[in-house]
Design brief:
The protein is mainly beta. It has one domain: Roll (Pnp Oxidase, Chain A). Helix content is 11%, strand content 36%. It is built from four helices and 14 strands. The strands form four sheets. A seven-stranded antiparallel beta sheet has the order 3-2-6-9-10-5-4, with helices on one face. Strand 2 and strand 3 form a beta hairpin. The structure holds flavin mononucleotide.
Length: 201
Amino acid sequence: MFYEPKKGLPFDIDPFKSLIFPRPIGWISSVNKKGIANLAPYSYFNAVTDEPPQIMFCSNGGSFNYKYKDSLSNILSTKEFVVNFATSSTRNQMNNSSKDFKPEEDEFILSKLKKKKSKLVRAPSVKDSPVNLECKLVKTIKLKSNSKKISTMIIGEVIGIFIKDKFIKNNRVDSLSMHYIARMGYSEYTTVTSKFNLKRK
Ligand SMILES: Cc1cc2nc3c(=O)[nH]c(=O)nc-3n(C[C@H](O)[C@H](O)[C@H](O)COP(=O)(O)O)c2cc1C
């Protein structure tokens, strides 16, 4: 099968996201100017470079009647955020935090998640996340959009990295023991449970 997305879909549900998987989930925490915390999952997310380390995520469309989703609004006004990671044990809280809450609602409280004070940014970290990446906004890029919905890529520099000690073994990160979850298509997710080594040529 071959199709051109702009000419229509040969499926009932757009399979685009089912073709690029697993997508890591950046569980983004931020605060607004009043100090109200916000938390939401973003699977258009990844690391993009490492000197200095930078990550990106994309915010598509708005929230309620607002032009931007709360994470983007907060980041535009405070210039900082934290990337947390959902695991098989926090999957339901991660899902809850994706609801379209109002800007004045704190998703940590609504999702029954504990906050941890971050070291370098005002946005709180998710205490149950194996890793927290404290970020400063580098830039936003407006993406092409076929609709009225605004799509924005947010690039952040990782200025502080917290790793729970129990996930460090023999001076390396023990990735598998973190049980990160990742997004596939539709409502499908996966947990990272196996690995193999391949030395780079
Ligand atoms: C696993 C998962 C991944 C998501 N990825 C994205 C994404 O990459 N971009 C996006 O705009 N929304 C994404 N969403 C939807 C947002 O989480 C949702 O719109 C949320 O309410 C945004 O919250 P905020 O307004 O507090 O930023 C995702 C939802 C889930 C459950």
